[in-house]
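Action item from last week, closing it out:
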Amino acid sequence: MAPKRQTKARRLVSGRYEPRFAVVALALAMAFAACGTTSPSSLATARVPLPAGKLPATIAKMVCSPKAQREIGVALGVTAVVEGPTWSEHLYSCRYTYPDGYFTLSVKELSSWTQTFSYFRGIGSSLGDVNTLPNLGQSGFATRDGSVAVRKDWKVLLVDISGLPAQFGKPPTPSGNVAVTVADVILGCWSGD
């Protein structure tokens, strides 16, 4: 009988799972544990998203919150100094700074599906939409430099990793995987407007 082949997700390195899979698995577990899952009753009360307002929405502010900082720190194995946040022209953002690099999280709030799709496509045009990321928000893609853009309702999250080295975190992980992990941690807690 021929031995069973191991899949990539189960391939072992020195008796442990590959680091990139461990980071993604940890991030997913944290997101579900911290935020819970969607219940059928919450699906029944879904509504049209709220338009951008004078102040940032609660879920936009979440990307820079102490809770998000802790969860991202656990997922990446390193702790950041978070600069900002700023709120200008319906864009809420902050920079996560580390001794060897930084990334910026931003959430653009929009007021219609047309505006949202246009803004989302604009990021793809300017930064390059090079890899669709299924099951991340309502639509997501990686850019030429490995940054990640995700659309959820009338909000667009951008994880800009242009300030990170090629390998980042503990254990060292390709920066493009870091962007996906950070987006996944954030989206794990997003619900409603």
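Closing note: The two ends are 55 Å apart (CA to CA).
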